[in-house]
Amino acid sequence: MEPGILFRIILVGNAGVGKSCILQRFLEKGFDDKYEVTIGVEFGTKQIKIDNKLIKVQIWDTAGQENYKSITRSFYKRAHGIILMYDITNKTSFNDLESWLNDIKDYANDGVDIALAGNQVDLVAYQDNYREVTYTQGYDMKNKNNFCSYHETSAKTGQNVNELFQELCSVLYKKQEIKGFGKNQTAFVSLTSSKDPRKKYKKCCK
Asked: Where is the signal peptide (predicted)?
């Protein structure tokens, strides 16, 4: 049976942190380390189960470059959840989270749920000197901003990738149950009437 609930999740963060590769891994398409810059916004979809109910998840992969931010901002209002991502081997990408948060506050819906992801943990598995952002720093950022979850992830190995999306979707699902969203509510839509003109996700970009 076609799932009746659609969650839209947007991936945001600096260029090169691995957003597109995380999406590719979540879609079970493996890992491709070839670097291709995302232009504008691309998306992929996947069905998951929450409380034995089938949910369709649409994930938007956004360009991280400054000159594409206006495009990214136009998608914030349609997102039910946001994954804010940085690279644990790049302190600048972590410091720039404040700028991304300002955009979220300005353009996303009030109370949107945000998950934090520190990507590329595979790079520090055997050479910790590559790490520029500690787990504690990420965890403190999560607590400071009341993010719904925090994971260190790896698109290459798949570490915590499913957990990242599953936990965010579980939070969205529980909120939907508590607030009693139904078929006539706009926050969660029937897939039979959902249309999106964007092209489907085709490539892996960091």
From this structure: none
Give the pTM: 0.80
* CATH number among 3.40.50.720, 3.40.1110.10, 3.10.50.40, 3.40.50.300, domain 6-193: 3.40.50.300
CA nearest neighbour of 27 among 62, 75, 59: 59
Crossing angle (nearest 10°) for helices 161-179 and 19-26? 80
Does 196 have pLDDT greater than 80?
no
Spell out the domain ranges in the chain.
6-193
31-59 exposure pattern, b = at least 16 Cβ within 10 A, e = fewer: bbeeeeebeebbbbeeebebeeeebbbbb
Residue 27 CB contacts under 8 Å (≥ 6 apart), including other chains: 44, 46, 201
- The residues pairing with 81 across neighbouring beta strands, listed in sequence order, are 9, 113
| Two tokens, residue 17 | 């942190």
Indicate the length of the chain as a whole number.
206
Selected residue with higher pLDDT from 128 and 21? 21
